[in-house]
Amino acid sequence: MVNCPKCGTEAANPIKCWTVSPAKRTTNEVVPEFRVGIFVCSECGSKFKKKVPSAAKTEQVTNIKKLAEKVKDIHGGLTRTLRTLREKMCILETERSSVLMEIESLKKAAESRAKALENEVNALRGEIQSLKELLGSTEKAS
Ligand SMILES: [Zn+2]
What we know:
By secondary structure, this protein is of the alpha+beta class. The protein contains one helix and three strands. The longest helix is centred in the last third of the chain and has 87 residues, at 55-141. The structure holds zinc ion (ZN).
């Protein structure tokens, strides 16, 4: 975070930015590179120069943030898919049981129909038999 030295307002992105590699070295340690940016305060309009966090770091953070968002998106998508699948399965389960019930009732209807037909056929056979007997007896009689 970079704040305006005059009014303390948090400044947005610098209008210009560059890396400074200090030539001076202290006796033992190497002074690391750093970036400097020129900012314009959105509040009071004053221009100022400030050290900014290294671009690589910011980029890394942004990438991680983006990755986290992507993961969140994927997770959200999966959750939605799971929910939809669960709902679909629930609907299919109900449909399945109603179809099974329908099949069961159709089977029963078909069975009773078959039985009725069987009875009818048997009755007709009986009739044929009695007709044959009648004919046979009249033939014999004549
Ligand atoms: Zn300011």
